[in-house]
Design a protein that fits this description.
57 residues, alpha+beta, two-stranded antiparallel sheet, 1 helix, 14% strand
């Protein structure tokens, strides 16, 4: 995804693989959200910086 469209809350139209689409070949609405994973047991640099209130660029 282009960086300029990666902000949380950005609304997009996306194409899903046919096996996941209600209507194959038709785009569906999507919204960029925070990564919904639970915290890592061994956090990476991005996770550590986020916890400290810094951005990983």
């Amino acid at each position: 995804m282009p960086f300029g469209l990666s902000g949380v809350g950005t609304e997009l139209r996306v194409w899903l693989p046919d096996q996941y689409a209600e209507t194959p070949g038709q785009p569906v609405g999507a919204t960029v959200v925070e990564v919904p994973f639970r915290p890592s047991v061994n956090p990476n640099t991005r996770e550590v910086l986020k916890e400290e209130g810094q951005a990983f660029l």
